[in-house]
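# step 3/5: fold
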Amino acid sequence: MRTTAAQLDATFSALADPTRRAILAKLSRGERSVTELAKPFDMSLPAISKHLKVLERARLIERGRDAQFRPCRLNPKPLREAADWVEQYTKAWDERLDRLDDYLRELQADTTK
């Protein structure tokens, strides 16, 4: 199993590509075949398969097996971990903005006196 830092690296690296983000958006609505996932893109099936391998290595998707059919489905856990990581910084930014807001109110009060 990967460490949290390695998992975050893999998640953000996979999310950096707009095609992979579009694939994840499609999978958020349910399981899809590779052919279904490839339809909206102007690229070959091998190119889509490369994107799917990146997503699979990042654990963002899982691939099942049903005879020749290999459905893909979203694995939301790494996305949750990435959101949690970002959230810790969001709290810090909010606190800084609150302090700035307080400071600006103080300045405004001083200028109205």
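# step 4/5: annotate
Helices lie at 4-15, 18-27, 34-38, 45-57, 77-112.
# step 5/5: archive (pending)
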